[in-house]
Amino acid sequence: MSVEVRNVTKQFGSFTALDHVSLKVESGELVALLGPSGSGKTTLLRIIAGLEFPDLADATVLYYGEDVTRIPASQRKAGFAFQHYALFRHLSVFENIAFGLRVRPRATRPSEEEIRERVNRLLKLIQLDAMAKRFPSQLSGGQRQRVALARALAVEPKVLLLDEPFGALDAKVRKELRRWLRQLHDEIHITTLFVTHDQEEALEVADRVAILRSGKIEQIGTPEEIYDRPVSPFVYDFLGNVNLFSGRMKDGEVVIGDTSFAVTDTERVAETQTVAFVRPHDIHIARTQNGAHSFPAQIVRCHAAGSVATVDLERLDDRVHFTAQLSKEEYQQLQPKTGEQVFVQLRNVRLFTDDYSI
Amino acid sequence: MKNPARFTGQARVLPGFRLTLGFTLLYLSLIVLIPLSAAFISAASLTWGEFWSDVASRQAVASYELSFGASFGAALVNLVFGVIVAWVLVRYRFFGKRVVDALVDLPFALPTAVAGITLATIYGPTGWIGEAVAPLGLKISYTQLGIFVALTFIGLPFIVRTVQPVLEDLDPEIEEAAASLGANRWQTFWRVILPMLAPALLTGFTLAFARALGEYGSVVFISSNIPMKTQITPLLIMTKLEEFDYGGATALAVVMLVVSFLLLLAINLIQWWASRHHRTELA
Asked: How far, in Å, CA of B230 to CA of B147, rounded?
């Protein structure tokens, strides 16, 4: 029981938006489609909704086993929320939510009383029961997006599709709303796909994250899986800040400058010349050289505003810049100064055979 | 606190309010109000009895019915077909679209007398269309139907040109949202697109209606101008002027003025009401 696409390709002129994409979303799952702009994530969502159709005849879209590939949006029963809400501005909040019920054919249309009851229940769910009579222009952005969600939920969709649902909101409202979305999903367990280009949002909200790149799914997995075990430098880079160190392989370890470091995930056999990937928070700074596994660097800049402190450094041998992140306590203990020379240790060093360059 | 007036609400963001309002009032007075008030002053030279017998004569009442009825009907017909024309021009790409787009404006530019003569010929008993409908027992030119056709002709661009930009600005996502909620094309049009067009439709209707009320040039050619049957009010006024009955002419003019103004005011009020939810009033 799932929502599934198989072998979907879509071209716009000479631009390939989707290239033989297959994806399966389990019933009740919340999946994020994450990728940079132009990666095809919105196109994939629109194809699942029936607002767009795949190019090739062998593509399939399945809702719980039922083939809906050629069925238009109006008959698919997919709830869709748009980035810019697309509310009906001539209708009140109440009527916006009731719309999907009122356009049903007479045989399946609920009675006026049932409609009122259902809309009121949804208004409570989105915490806007006091706003039923307002028009969309009288609501804030976050309120409008909640109305758009309630409107999509009113028709009891088989799947809920959200296109950059928080993209047009400011940072604070975004955070509130995505936490609310997660709670809502835990309450009603509707199969949900949402598109985002914000990795933090995807990692925080979703059960699984699919990372798209140039019309293909690069990796799919739980937030932990993709963060801890990225399959490519693209995924690694997309999920957070990254430092690159050029080095060479020796005895299963990577040698950077004169210092060798252990490599995480050693199954990957890299060529002798290689690039090591290290996250800023996996870089440790010390004043003294503790053992052999550190190399010297100079501090270029420190900034300590925020929950973590950031230190920009420069390698002494090849003058390459990199960034380390320290916790507030580490930073206060160390008290690094600009221009000072320190020793750097690397943890969780990752290598990729892929030729992707950042 | 360089500018304390800002905090008392004296100064406005956009300067020149008094200057522009003053100019607006002066301009309106010179171009509209003073000439129109001349009609009232002229009509005031009549006694009540004379005035009443002029404006309530059977011939005058018949002409009001024709003028307002035909104008209203023509504006209504244009409302329907104007939306279709605007829809086609906005939604589809086809060969010759630019030409069709330009054709819509033709009734604006054509001298109304030319329009009248052309229409009278084509819809006349020996014209292409007149001949074609004659076997059905229909006569167009020189009848009330002819007047209606002429008023429809001159009113079309008003609806098309007011609806077109609004339709162009309509976000396609709105229609996709309706579709994803299960609405078919027809329901999307009736329940979503049309209500959103409503303010523009009302404006277009008002303009077309007002234009038709004042039309004279084309009607005199296509109408047989028979009193009680095919005589519109502007023509009746003209007839009175030719008979040097200036008082009678201005009395009718005053009636036209007052009724037109009231109708336009009423439509404006409806429009204000219809667009109420476009105004943002964050409480």
From this structure: 8
A75:B173 CB<8 A: no
Chain A residues lying within 8 Å of B279, measured CB to CB: 137
How many CB atoms within 10 Å of residue B168? 11
Of B178, B187, B277, the CB nearest to A137: B277
The residue type found at B168 is: E
Q: Residue A137 and residue B279: Cβ atoms within 8 Å?
A: yes
Query: With contact defined as beta carbons under 8 Å apart, do B74 and B152 qualify?
Result: yes
Contact status, residue B252 vs residue B237, Cβ threshold 8 Å: yes
Query: What are the pLDDT digits (tens) for A90-112?
Result: 999 999 999 999 999 999 999 99
User: Tell me, what's the ipTM?
Assistant: 0.82
pTM, rounded to two decimals: 0.80
CB < 8 Å from A in window 250-279 of B: 277-279
Strand A341-346 to A283-286 pairing? antiparallel
Question: By the 8 A CB rule, do A136 and A96 touch?
Answer: yes
DSSP string, A240-299: S--EEEEEEEETTEEEETTEEEEBSSTTSPPPSEEEEEE-GGGEEEESS--SSS-EEEEE
CA distance B251 to A256: 102
Residues A141 and A174: beta-carbon distance below 8 Å: no
